[in-house]
Amino acid sequence: MKQPLLTARGKLLADPYRLLLIGLALLYVVLFTHLAWELHAAMRTHKADLGQIDQAIWNSSRGRWLQQTDNGFTATRLTDHVEPILVLISPLYWLWDDVRALLLLQVAAAAIGVLPLYSLALRQFEKLLTAQQRRQVWQREPLQQLTRPLACALGVAYLLAPQLQSALLTEFHAAVLAVPLILWAFWAVEAQRWKQFVVAALLAALVKEEIALLAAGLGLWAVWRAWLESRRARTAGAPSLAGVARYGPYAAGAGVLLAGLLWFVLATFVIVPAYAAPLYGGSESSYFARYGALGDSSADILKSFFTQPQVVWQIATQPARVAYLAGLLAAFGWLALLGPEIVLLSLPLLLANLLSAYPAQYYGEFHYSAPLVPYFAVASAFGLGRLWRWAAPRLSRASPHFQHLPAAGGGTMAAVALLQNAATALQPLLSAGLLLWILGWSGGNYLLHGRGPLGGRYDPAPISAHPLLLERFAAQIPSAAAVTATAAVHPHVSHRQYVYQFPLGLDAPVPADWALLDVTTNTDMAPGDLKTAVDAMLAGDWGVVDAAGGYLLLRRGAPDKSVPPAFYSFTRTPGSVQPGSDQPDSDQDEPLQLVRLAAEDWPRWRQTKLVAEWQVSGDFAAAGEPALAVRTPAGETLATLGTATPPALVWYPPQAWQPGETLRVTTLPLTLPHIFAVTASGGDPDKPALFVREESGALQQLPSDWADAADLGESLSPWLGALQPGLPAAVQLPSGAAIELRGWLPARPLQPGQPLNVWLQWTLPAGMQAWPAELAVFVHLRHTPAGQAADAEAVTVAQADGAPQWFGRPSLPHAQAGAPANALADWRQLPLPADAPAAGEWRVVVGVYDPLTGQRLPLLDGTGAPLGDELTLGQVQVRAPAPPDQACALVNACE
């Protein structure tokens, strides 16, 4: 009788968990492709790295292997990396000639890796069964019912891994393409599909030079697994194999091992230096210079492992690096610790990232960590399988003996029944517990660090009308023309043989005939330098083809030398009066009236652009330059318009502003602390705009009247988190009147080096219109070391003295509705020492004194009882230092 065959479709339908993962992978592709395309459309991709890699791939699709012109002349991508995989994927552009195809491919490659991981995990559970039992459905099916959810959970954890998601949203890099190939290779070894293993491992070696070293490790793993399987077969009494069947696995593994090592050496120490030497002047890859104290060459770095082990250990155990390793483990519920040999296979890349002096490598938010994710996923699959194979046999006893027990209570009988029939009760509980463990860790990790919706680092790119205008200009450039473009424009015009980053290419061997510039987005140039270069071009043989909204399209030989008025529209708000038009009469007292002050923020990289809009009145000519200043609560000036002149002021200087216009000035990207204030011409200098970056990374602007609340602490809490109120007090003046005092401190612990914010609110007595000029406030931070006697004198480690102040300016009374009459809001910042110990007592002390005599004024509590001459506002907790986020580590300029 003919036996029915179970088709591939039938097998798929018989496994709902595989179907679920396929559905989740498709959703993953849709979601992260959309986010990647949004970043590109919003002009948040650049020449480095999307534009230059895209051009090399596009040129490869036209037979010019890995050719690029990003250095101003025709070169090859081999100056930096050896990535033959880019040539293999280049036919993609035969199907869709658009850079977005590359972003789609990257996401799809990551998503498809979930399938070999799922199959690999199932094989780890099936090792509990003998070969004969695996062929018996009554043995295999009960096991799969319990373990398929666990394998599925590992697949979900893989898709939720923030390190992989971050790589997908960091432009495009070949390293991501290695992820599914590594998973495929591991699965092929377990399935003993040796031809597939060789293909997968060798393709992985072609991704990048360091991945070749990982491929060699895969070859070593294949040899080891082949030897283990052969040993187990002999132990089980299976007949010995001969010929290819016996030695083929060893040949496959050894061949990949040898090929991987040879290719790594050839790529790293022969190919890259040969092409890079004329450009960089070095005999080795420039990336070896990223290892600081360990040396700047491969030999020195390797030597340091033996001659300076203490330095290696000191670097590896820094908090940021420990957090990096913990993040990779936490993504899969720490199960990779039970599969350490798989993690060891990733050691060349893991150590390269962990010990690098370049923060992007050990923060897990660039592409560098993507190839490590499959190793930790596979290690978790092996670890989970081992845990199951250890626990399941111990929970598989089944017996009806409980039925013959003497009569007992229902609870006792149920407990005995549960223990004696463990196979039907405890194993499902074990499966459910492990399922919750994996999903709990991976889900929680995603909520803290994930890049998708609901993720802690979710950062979709808003697309304004400005980037949508780019298509109009790009469409006018002939497809075969050589182009020079600003950094953010570059990847939008990189499908051509010659494309340069402005100002490169103007005098290249094959010079650019077209220039497409956007002065409002990333240019990698100072705005003044860019304008100087454009002026020189227009004074020469270049002319304007089109211009609008900050875009300039120039062509060599074009006759028009003037920049049209439409170009300057980026400096004006919609509806603003155009120069030369009838101007309305203005009755403003101020020559500049601040209309709007806002922030455009990119949380992932902590880049903030401040936007000021001013309306110009008739007497502006005599008013001088507009001003904008960013300050800390302590009054320190962080940035002004003179620090780095914004593009709007370079291209349309204030001397050209016309009455009736409403001008928009957007600063260059700034890296600012968690709390800062902005004042601008035409606004109230005593009420600066206050911005606060929340724990999630989002930047919020506080309401304009927040400081006028009756309870300053209650007004601040929604924005700054929980605050601890101090004891209310009053300062007794010589006249007998009293100034009431309330204060607040942060409730959360601070880490060394952070500023300590102290919020005070003074209420003047009736009839007093300003803080007494003869008095000053002292705010001290005092520390009593741990182990000191209770009466030991505390050391003042920081102080902020002076009259009540508001971001460096004297605080003025306000009388808003609901607020105390004559209330003064007072904000001080005290620097917490960088070496501040967590142990001991940290106190904030407040008082009032006469600076001329040093005499302190007495303080009273709420009942009128004396408190002495100073008030302990509260205690501050200091915690061990935590690593800064990646953006702060890269620029070294954040709190």
Fold and architecture overview:
Mean pLDDT is 88; it is low at 1-5 and 815-819. The longest helix has 37 residues, at 244-280. A hairpin with a 5-residue loop joins strand 14 and strand 15 (699-701). By secondary structure, the protein is of the alpha+beta class. The chain has 29 helices and 28 strands. Helices cover 40% and strands 17% of the residues. Strands 16, 17, 18, 19, 24, 26 and 27 form a seven-stranded antiparallel β-sheet that branches. A five-stranded mixed β-sheet has the order 4-3-5-7-6. It has a five-stranded antiparallel β-sheet with strand order 11-10-13-14-15, with no helix packed on it. Helix 7 runs parallel beside helix 11 (178-191) and helix 13 packs antiparallel against helix 14. The radius of gyration is 34 Å and the shape is globular.
Residue-averaged pLDDT? 88
Radius of gyration over C-alpha positions, nearest whole angstrom: 34 Å
Low-pLDDT regions: 1-5, 815-819
Roughly how much helix do the residues carry, as a percent range? 25-40%
Structural topology:
Blueprint: H1 8-13, H2 16-41, H3 47-61, E1 67-68, E2 75-76, H4 85-89, H5 92-95, H6 99-112, H7 114-126, H8 131-134, H9 137-160, H10 162-168, H11 178-191, H12 194-205, H13 209-235, H14 244-280, H15 298-307, H16 309-316, H17 319-330, H18 340-345, H19 347-354, H20 359-362, H21 372-391, H22 410-420, H23 422-449, H24 465-468, H25 470-474, E3 483-485, E4 499-501, E5 514-518, H26 527-539, E6 542-548, E7 551-556, E8 592-602, E9 607-616, E10 628-631, E11 637-640, H27 647-651, E12 662-666, E13 675-680, E14 689-693, E15 699-701, H28 712-720, E16 723-725, E17 729-732, E18 738-746, E19 755-763, E20 776-784, E21 795-802, E22 805-806, E23 809-810, E24 823-831, E25 841-849, E26 859-860, E27 866-868, E28 871-875, H29 886-891
Parallel strand pairs: 3-4, 3-5
Antiparallel strand pairs: 1-2, 5-7, 6-7, 8-9, 9-12, 10-11, 10-13, 13-14, 14-15, 16-18, 17-18, 17-26, 18-19, 19-24, 20-21, 20-25, 22-23, 25-28, 26-27
Helix pairs in contact: 2-6, 2-9, 7-9, 7-11, 7-21, 9-21, 9-23, 11-12, 11-13, 11-21, 12-13, 12-14, 13-14, 22-23
